[in-house]
């Protein structure tokens, strides 16, 4: 029997409606493709990932797949500013490993402390950094690096390369990729303190 709370139609309608109301908060009018999800998650070594953070989970396209792949004793912290998405995620993904928090990505360290969690092994982000003012973008990049454990990585997907200089300033290592099988095509960045 299909899970109506996770129906694709409901996800698309919620996502598109929020895009029309807040186009600068979402990078695209439709959720990410499975190709993009696979490509972004490819660098993750799941057995080492005890704490994972996701910025801007939206309707949970990445969130559901991360939960499917991660360890049974791991934690996923989904940080989302949009209250519609927060309610939808809490209702549609009732997994005890998932912590949905209505907060800004810039508060990642205080969110982890509040939850009693260690620094993250991976932080995944699709929030539109390129449409943010440079000081905000730089602040998020710097606080993200500080919220990662040694050897951790910031996995970013964007629809422009505008965030690249901020990522390069915050991280010692940034590897670029591209996924054409998404609408719109996406730029990918794997960021770490050192080469991984």
Lateral arrangement of strands in the main beta sheet: 3-2-1-4-5-7-6
Task: Report the CATH architecture.
Answer: 3-Layer(aba) Sandwich
What's the CATH superfamily, by name? Vaccinia Virus protein VP39
Number of helices: 7
Average pLDDT, all residues: 89
Helical residues, percent: 25-40%
Using only C-alpha atoms, the radius of gyration works out to 15 Å
Per DSSP E runs of 2 or more residues, the count of β-strands stands at: 7
Order of helices and strands: HHEHEHEHEHEHEE
Largest sheet: 7 strands, mixed
The CATH C-level name is: Alpha Beta
What would the principal axes of the Cα set say about the shape? globular
Mind explaining what this structure looks like?
The chain is of the alpha/beta class and 196 residues long. The chain has one domain: 3-Layer(aba) Sandwich (Rossmann fold). It has seven helices and seven strands. The chain has helices at residues 8-21, 34-41, 61-69, 83-92, 108-114, 134-146, 164-170, and strands spanning 51-55, 75-80, 98-102, 120-125, 148-158, 173-179, 186-192. It has a seven-stranded mixed sheet, with helices on both faces. Helix 3 (61-69) links the parallel strand 1 and strand 2 (75-80). Helix 6 runs parallel beside helix 7.
Describe what is shown at a glance:
The protein is of the alpha/beta class.
How would the blueprint of this fold be written?
Elements: H1 8-21, H2 34-41, E1 51-55, H3 61-69, E2 75-80, H4 83-92, E3 98-102, H5 108-114, E4 120-125, H6 134-146, E5 148-158, H7 164-170, E6 173-179, E7 186-192
Parallel strand pairs: 1-2, 1-4, 2-3, 4-5
Antiparallel strand pairs: 5-7, 6-7
Helix pairs in contact: 6-7
């Amino acid at each position: 029997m299909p899970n109506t709370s996770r129906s694709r139609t409901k996800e698309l309608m919620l996502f598109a409606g929020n895009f029309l109301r807040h186009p600068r908060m979402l990078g695209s009018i439709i959720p990410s493709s499975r190709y993009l999800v696979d490509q972004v998650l490819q660098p993750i070594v799941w057995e080492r990932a005890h704490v994972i953070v996701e910025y801007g989970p939206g309707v949970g396209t990445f969130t559901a797949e991360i939960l499917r792949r991660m360890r049974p004793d791991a934690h996923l912290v989904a940080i989302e500013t949009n209250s519609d998405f927060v309610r939808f995620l809490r209702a549609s993904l009732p997994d005890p490993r998932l912590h949905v928090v209505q907060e800004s990505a810039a508060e990642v360290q205080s969110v982890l402390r509040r939850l009693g969690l260690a620094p993250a092994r991976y932080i995944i982000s699709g929030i539109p950094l390129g449409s943010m003012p440079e000081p905000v973008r730089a602040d998020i990049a710097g606080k993200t690096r500080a919220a990662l454990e040694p050897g951790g990585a910031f996995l970013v997907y964007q629809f422009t390369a505008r965030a690249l200089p901020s990522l390069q300033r915050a991280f010692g290592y940034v590897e670029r990729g591209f996924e054409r099988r998404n609408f719109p095509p996406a730029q990918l960045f794997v960021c770490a303190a050192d080469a991984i």
